[in-house]
């Protein structure tokens, strides 16, 4: 695909840091391996990687362990950030299958990607624009591909992301650094833009977080064994009444021990 004269989208703040997206990358590697191995030369796109190319490099390094032929392209709307990516490659030596180019939501890459990771990109958009961006990005995916879109804090300790297939949203994942988590609903501030204004009584995402907090409170005695034990018990209790994904690769305990829990999108889909 040839890049358009003017990339589609707006320049983000560009805030980034090493290992900020480690939780997301680990989840992608664990749950999306089949998509990442599709075809002779599967392509992943890191959309809106920010002022530093480090998280794109980390994505390339982490996903290549499960898909050695995977190509990763970092796409940024700001020319100086693309130049920083090129400078990184020149400084650190060539990295097979890693490159950078200018672009936006049109995703100007040579073939349809099996993965688009777009993190902390839609935060500045309104809800309607975020839904539109989801539709546009889904339309760029290869068959069987996945869009992973979400938000995390500045050092990656709290994050929420949605996995979308070409036909729509599939799952939502909540993840936290458990020793610093007060209660599960603290993650509400990291909800994707399509949901963050829906965290009000009567909306499914609000009801889910209220139920999760109740289970967290009930699981308090397990804190004697550490925050991880409390989280696992809270998720186990929540699964009695809510559609927690408990089968591999989303669960049960292996992913829960990472401070994660994944639900089908229907559990939070706005009314």
Percentage of residues in DSSP E strands = 15-25%
Detail the poorly predicted runs.
none
> How many DSSP H or I helices?
8
Structural category is: alpha/beta
What is the N-to-C order of secondary-structure elements (H for helix, E for strand)?
HHEHEHEEHEEEHHHE
Description:
- The protein is of the alpha/beta class and 271 residues long.
- The chain has eight helices and eight strands, in the order H-H-E-H-E-H-E-E-H-E-E-E-H-H-H-E.
- It has helices spanning 22-31, 33-36, 54-64, 79-92, 127-138, 204-218, 227-238, 253-256; strands spanning 43-47, 71-76, 98-102, 115-119, 146-152, 158-165, 168-176, 260-264.
- The protein has an eight-stranded mixed sheet with strand order 3-2-1-4-5-6-7-8, sandwiched between helices.
- Helix 5 (127-138) links the parallel strand 4 and strand 5.
- Helix 1 (22-31) packs parallel to helix 3 (54-64).
- The longest helix has 15 residues, at 204-218.
- The protein starts with 21 loop residues before the first helix and ends in a 7-residue tail after the last strand.
Kindly list the characteristics that best describe this protein:
271 residues, globular, 8 helices, 30% helix
Describe the structure in brief:
The chain is an alpha/beta fold. Helices cover 30% and strands 18% of the residues.
Summarize the SSE layout with pairings.
Blueprint: H1 22-31, H2 33-36, E1 43-47, H3 54-64, E2 71-76, H4 79-92, E3 98-102, E4 115-119, H5 127-138, E5 146-152, E6 158-165, E7 168-176, H6 204-218, H7 227-238, H8 253-256, E8 260-264
Parallel strand pairs: 1-2, 1-4, 2-3, 4-5
Antiparallel strand pairs: 5-6, 6-7, 7-8
